[in-house]
Automatic annotation (TrEMBL):
It is an enzyme of class 2 (transferase). It comes from Dietzia psychralcaliphila. Guanylyltransferase that catalyzes the activation of phosphoenolpyruvate (PEP) as enolpyruvoyl-2-diphospho-5'-guanosine, via the condensation of PEP with GTP. It is involved in the biosynthesis of coenzyme F420, a hydride carrier cofactor. HAMAP family: CofC. Pfam families: CofC. It catalyses: phosphoenolpyruvate + GTP + H(+) = enolpyruvoyl-2-diphospho-5'-guanosine + diphosphate. The gene is fbiD. Keywords: GTP-binding, Nucleotide-binding, Nucleotidyltransferase, Transferase. GO terms for molecular function: GTP binding; phospholactate guanylyltransferase activity. This is Phosphoenolpyruvate guanylyltransferase. The keyword Protein transport does not apply. Phosphoenolpyruvate binds at T152, G169, S172. InterPro entries: CofC, Nucleotide-diphossugar_trans.
Length: 240
């Protein structure tokens, strides 16, 4: 595995891995509301805020980003964090989603506890992540379900390397729980920010009434994002 050195010590504390899809492929469900440039800007902004939060969180010794996107890699270099190139054509032993193969490579051989934090949590702040990590350290495997209950926003491992198997993708929450024996941490963060990912125009629209990171807030002020999310959100509500 080739990495570009950056933020964090190599010994002690958590290693946090943040996967970020190529920006042109990310958040396809937002396409009905946002044009491609606006969608790309929002994904990069959310990733920026999540990475900054990980860096600022007490107890985090190292942050890595898994990506094949040059703009995301440039962001990681500016933040001085490690880049793990997303492997092409890698086999996934945990259920078919190539993301899991990339994450497996990113956590391979890492000493100490490791975690995966998704890049679409614009409300997440260091105190909230620190609270989750404090709970996760007491379990061999734990996870945070997303606000819909089916997906996973975070997964953590403190046990043997061979048991560290990411199970992201469809129905990942159930898979982490049933196949991996993960302990759910859905009640650890009272604010809900740790589980509130952004996948739909309705999710984007809801951010207008919540505190988000600086980079995300700047993108949300752009007319193409605000108007697009509002239009799609209103339409979706009307047809229910």
């Amino acid at each position: 595995m080739k990495t570009v050195a950056g933020h964090g010590a190599t010994n002690g504390g958590w290693t946090i891995v943040v996967p970020v899809k190529a920006l042109d492929r990310a958040k396809s469900r937002l396409a009905r509301a946002l044009p491609a440039p606006a969608r790309r800007a929002l994904v990069l902004a959310m990733a920026t805020d999540v990475l900054r939060t990980c860096i600022a969180t007490p107890g985090v010794a190292r942050v890595r980003v898994v990506t094949s996107d040059p703009d995301v890699a440039a962001l990681a270099r500016r933040l001085r964090i490690e880049i793990v190139p997303e492997p092409v054509g890698a086999a996934d032993r945990s259920g078919g989603d190539p993301l899991n193969a990339a994450l497996t490579e990113a956590i391979r051989g890492v000493p100490g506890p490791v975690g995966v934090v998704t890049a679409d949590l614009p409300e997440l702040r260091a105190p909230q992540l620190a609270r989750v990590l404090a709970a996760a350290v007491g379990h061999a495997h734990s996870m945070v379900p997303d606000h819909g209950g089916a997906g996973t926003t975070m997964a953590f491992w403190t046990g043997p390397a061979g048991a560290r198997i990411p199970r992201f993708g469809p129905d990942s929450a159930a898979r982490h729980l049933s196949e991996g024996g993960a302990v759910p941490l859905d009640e650890v963060d009272p604010s809900g920010a740790a589980g509130r990912d952004v996948d739909t125009p309705e999710d984007v629209l809801a951010l207008a009434e919540r505190a988000v990171g600086e980079a995300t807030a700047a993108v949300l002020r752009a007319p193409s994002v605000a108007q697009g999310a509002h239009s799609a959100g209103v339409s979706a509500t009307m047809v229910r």
